[in-house]
Amino acid sequence: MDRLVFLLATGLARGLVVALFALSLVIVWRAARLVNFAQAAVATVAVFAAFAVTGATGSFWAGLGAALVSGAALNAAVERGLMRRVPSGSPLPGMIVAIGLVMVLQSALGIAFGPRHRPMAAPFDERPFVVGGVPLLSPYDLFVLIVALAVVGLLAWLFNGTSLGLQLRASAAAPEVSRLLGVRVPRMVTLGWALSGAVAALAALLLVPTELGLNAHSADLLFVHAFTVAVLGGLDSPTGALLGGIAVGVLVSLVTGYLGAGVAPLAVLALLTLVLLVRPGGIFATAQVRAA
Amino acid sequence: MSPALAVEALTVGYAGTPVLDDLALAVAPGEVVALLGANGAGKTTLLRALSGLTAPRTGRVLLDGADLTALSVEDRARRGLAQVPEGRSVVTELTVDENLRLGALWCHPGRAARRAAVARTYDLFEPLARRRSSLGHQLSGGERQMLALGRALLARPRVLLLDEPSLGLAPRVVAQLMGVLRTTARETGLTVLLAEQNVTSALSIADRGVVLSLGAVVVDAPATELAGDPALRHAYLGF
């Protein structure tokens, strides 16, 4: 029983990180109708920037800022420099360019920093609190939970409560009509990519201290989980990404705890297959015809 | 007085087979002009070239004497050139209220002013008020067209371009829409260019009728004259 509570609590913290990364995929999907396979590579580059800044200044928070800024800048550059020039109409060319970008970024990181994992210190203690003999969340898990929930709330407010969010949503849903209403759609698309890059970088940065450390492939598994979540929840649905992220985090935590870490990827794959069989559009997907 | 909207030597399409051929048109401030003609005459192409969605090969578009030709679609819209495109111009993923707020973004600065402007639109189109939190795709055809028109008017445009607003709507709804258009034009001095297949209702509210055929203006006459001349009607409008 104690073990179950512990696994659920850590699964929740990890699930929220996965949810954040899945949200970043949803944001790009809504802005550009594209699954950005390069998201993990971009996020890893941003975490390397954070690593360098934290190393130079000694401040985790300066590193966090660097990750957000470089994630946003990199994704904006990817959109302006690459994706905008890719023929639209079919999602395939954009995905292939993204996969090419993964190879370029990961190779560059590998060449520059080598294959070894660089340990990253968490800004808070990682030993769990013990309540009544039961180990629960660590202070760092708690920090992750709070940050993730705050970002989810902030994104919900941005998209649903501000006129910038209204323009972002309108541009994604009906670009031509939005332009006729005076919305600068190309700018909104770039902004969507930048926002998504910052969120992905944050998720990767929160994850790395709990893992082996930082190397070129640190965010790969996070991407696989988040992609599963995005498909699970429907690429269009932020609510789906949030709930799906928690579900996958808890699933991975339980399977790892009871059956061993080797089985966890299998469990995620089984879940993905099951959802694709039963509801190919995702559990929270809304089937709609789009306006021009 | 310079015309609210002027088109000079506008040519759109490929060399040899232009969709619009050296077209010239001027609409006076406050004037309602019906743009008529068969399918393929170039009505939609003209409206798209005016709003900037289609790039012309040659020619200029002027709004109150200012050249818009080099401006983007977005900037033309913000300058006061509103277009309601044919058919599905409502953002179906957004609610009625959000669609209207989108129309009020530029000329009603501040949240309170925007709310007030949207509220006035609900007074103008009462059926929309009951559906303010419905998503666009849940609306009927008539409600969508009301929403598209209400949203366009919220931007307080100088010139309003409408493409087939009556398409697929019940006569009663068409009459209501045309009534609102006529009243708004009269009260606010709004200039309207109305492309329509529904010749009778378009001419009923228009000051002037312009008939396009094969990308050129073939008739330009007062609406009453056009509606009352059987030979003209038969030759160009087919009834």
Summarize the structure.
Chain A is an all-alpha fold and 292 residues long. Chain A contains 11 helices and 2 strands. A two-stranded antiparallel sheet of chain A has the order 1-2.
Q: What is the helix tally of chain A?
A: 11
| Side-by-side strand order of the widest sheet of chain B | 6-7-8-3-9-10
Helix content of chain A: over 70%
Provide the low-confidence segments of chain B as ranges.
none
Q: What is the radius of gyration of chain B?
A: 17 Å
Q: What is the helix/strand order of chain B?
A: EEEHEEHEHHHHEHEHEEHH
Q: Biggest sheet of chain B, in brief?
A: 6 strands, mixed
Distance between the termini of chain B: 36 Å
Helix/sheet category of chain A: mainly alpha
Q: Order of strands in the sheet with the most strands of chain A?
A: 1-2
Q: Please give the largest β-sheet of chain A.
A: 2 strands, antiparallel
Query: How many beta strands in the DSSP annotation of chain B?
Result: 10
What's the shape of chain B?
A: globular
The number of strands of chain A is: 2
Quaternary state reads heterodimer
| Strand percentage of chain A | under 5%
The H-and-E topology of chain A, N to C, reads as HHHHEEHHHHHHH
Summarize the amount of helix of chain B as a percent range: 40-55%
**How many angstroms separate the termini of chain A?**
54 Å
The residue-averaged pLDDT of chain B reads 89
Overview of this protein structure:
The complex is a heterodimer of chains A (292) and B (239). The longest helix of chain A has 31 residues, at 2-32. Chain A has helices at 2-32, 39-57, 60-81, 92-113, 139-161, 163-173, 175-180, 185-207, 220-233, 238-259, 264-278; strands at residues 130-131, 134-135. In chain A, strands 1-2 form a two-stranded antiparallel sheet. The radius of gyration of chain A is 19 Å and the shape is globular. The N and C termini of chain A lie far apart (54 Å). Chain A has a domain at 21-218. Chain A has 292 residues and is mostly helical. Chain A has eleven helices and two strands. Chain B has 239 residues and is of the alpha/beta class. In chain B, 40% of the residues lie in helices and 26% in strands. Chain B has ten helices and ten strands. Chain B has helices at residues 43-51, 73-79, 96-103, 111-124, 126-130, 141-154, 171-188, 199-205, 223-228, 230-237; strands at 5-14, 17-27, 32-36, 58-63, 66-67, 81-84, 159-163, 191-195, 208-213, 216-222. In chain B, strand 9 (208-213) and strand 10 form a beta hairpin. Chain B is globular, with a radius of gyration of 17 Å. Classes of the chains: A mainly alpha (292), B alpha/beta (239). At the A-B interface, helix 6 and helix 7 of A face helix 2 and helix 3 of B.
